[in-house]
């Protein structure tokens, strides 16, 4: 029986975290020949994840350059992937989510008449500028894809409203929940020394990440001022903020939050460090998409530092609350969770709508079904609400 040749394409750390479990599952399957291509749109952060999950790329474009623009990434990735596709000759290209690498991977495959499978398909804010450029990246990728691996029923419904054939949509859950099964450990010892000194029982540790393009400038200043208010008003709170290396983020965070004994500003953490910190913290404040999915599976309430989210399932389930970026909102909403035990318990114990740890397996089963190597359509992921 002829094997299916699948080429996975990704370029950033978030993609790698979510694609690595799928690569591992694909390589277990004797009916699929799996190759890996990375653009290295992000270099150092990507390499850490590849090492963590023991994924060795078959093709590495290494496109990252200092102060690269979207134009630079798009051009270099498109030309590089043309050569990769000519060598690999896959039956299916698998891309993930909403990065520039994702869109370009789908576009290059379309140009060469190769089928595209979109992992984490169907997320929408319905505002092409928020988040930028991710919203349009995922919409354009969806338009170019043949197989749509939607993490939730809401994502499936988004795709159907856009005219996607329901038969090409498979609801799988999110692969990031698969990744957490590997990275989070009870006896984990942090590589970052200061994290081993934290007393997670005596202090309530708040994990913060904030770096999205739309929050740069005044919104990020407002967020940081609100965070400072939270720490100053709550003497048992310790704030840990791994700060993005973008000077627009790094400089603002250090200017407002630096030199406080209960605020720890770090360089970006490796994936396993971040996941294990998340597992031990009290709650999460973030403008990240991935943390909105990861933290609820660890029983941590999430306050989203954005005005819109493409992950409404978590809001509906009660694991996540969108609070915007205003200074007074950050203080007010954080203090609700610090003072109201019932509200904290409601968010912490809500059912995670994003996965059960078997998304990668469902995706592999869906690929086999699509290519006629299995006669059984996989059962869809449905959380027990």
From TrEMBL:
Transmembrane segments: none annotated. Residues 24-367 form the UDP-N-acetylglucosamine 2-epimerase domain. Its EC number is 5.1.3.14. CDD domains: GTB_UDP-GlcNAc_2-Epimerase. InterPro entries: UDP_GlcNAc_Epimerase_2_dom (IPR003331), WecB-like (IPR029767). GO terms for molecular function: UDP-N-acetylglucosamine 2-epimerase activity. Keywords: Isomerase. Belongs to the UDP-N-acetylglucosamine 2-epimerase family. This is UDP-N-acetylglucosamine 2-epimerase (non-hydrolyzing). It comes from Thermosediminibacter oceani (strain ATCC BAA-1034 / DSM 16646 / JW/IW-1228P).
